């Protein structure tokens, strides 16, 4: 992590961090600001730097950003995206923008699913394993993500997945289900558990994330969303068309009166056998999927129970599936009281200091930090971002657009449309084989950083036989980066008119 070492003094006495990074291109742009890919000149590593504009214009947005950077600091796991650094602002009291340095990931699971019609059963199993492994860790911290969907799962060409966008996550501080206010935009409807459909005030449990993972897994198997509801009623219709009408005792648990009355008056529907819906899927995969998509949350397995399912026989390993301690109430005291703009600014500044140990030490000693202003090292950095924002979408960039999605907050990034058409010959890029990243067990392991076609030649080539058989879960020639235009039907609003800049997956057949 930047800022930890003998060069601390140089970092902290002036805003020299900006000159440490060379911005390469814009990879996302939205109302919050812009995300650029960059090179860390000290390490040579490619990173994603997110500039968040006018953080404190709306206290609710600032609180969401605070919640996310705090959770990503506390939740360290190979399957959760990592914040590598947050730049120290020029002024403690007056800063408006923040720069967050993330590990760079190449794409997201939405793009992977859309761009590939030849994913193998081994891909499905390995993807689901990583998602459940990360959920086990997240839930052991008493955190509920609440907005799991393919676009919030980053992906690399080596089949590595990482969950991102914790802006809607919540921490539960007791064993009982907590009451929480839900609005229609919380948790994208297609992946929202039935007990939350139409609810404005509902009890929630870890089962809401388990349901979302089930929907994502079904989308992998089918190549399209399982329940693409146009509204709450349509969402419930699609669920019951497939799963059948739920029993009265399950309907009674839905707190929204209209939704409860609608389900109660619904004609009796028999469930559709999962094997009919997914005829080519592994029967063990379907049995687990049926457990994940149980209508009643009490019938869904925990992430730990799901990892013990026979579907993961030979792959699951407790040493690679760590848990963690519950998060302290003190970390999220701001959630329990009304905070103003200055309060959130101070709390975000305090979080930023976690990446600047020397400044944190001075801060905790009570030294006056109100008057420092750093030199103009940030000016060049701001100019680079301004250039990216001004010329984004006009073809004026030094290298092709790699992807259009990033995290924190994910859904605010506006995907650049029709970029693929500007890249002559881009579809003819040679395929680069990339070895599957070894998964490390300890939560603080540095695992799964971005791998690009440009450096893939330095990666070792493992035998495809090793997938699922090796203790380190290694394989060769897993996936490659390739542009492909989205041809999905335009009638589904959430997937309309998107240019797919995904991964072209090719998996060697496993030898017996």
Automatic annotation (TrEMBL):
Pfam families: Pkinase
Polar residues biased stretches: 438-461
Keywords: ATP-binding, Kinase, Nucleotide-binding, Phosphoprotein, Serine/threonine-protein kinase, Transferase
The reaction(s) this protein catalyses: L-seryl-[protein] + ATP = O-phospho-L-seryl-[protein] + ADP + H(+); L-threonyl-[protein] + ATP = O-phospho-L-threonyl-[protein] + ADP + H(+)
Known EC number: 2.7.11.24
Domain Protein kinase, residue spans: 21-312
Region (Disordered): 438-463
SMART domains in alphabetical order: S_TKc
Ribosomal protein recorded as keyword: no
Binding site for ATP: 51
PANTHER family attached to this UniProt entry: MITOGEN-ACTIVATED PROTEIN KINASE (PTHR24055)
Protein name: mitogen-activated protein kinase
Lineage: Eukaryota, Viridiplantae, Streptophyta, Embryophyta, Tracheophyta
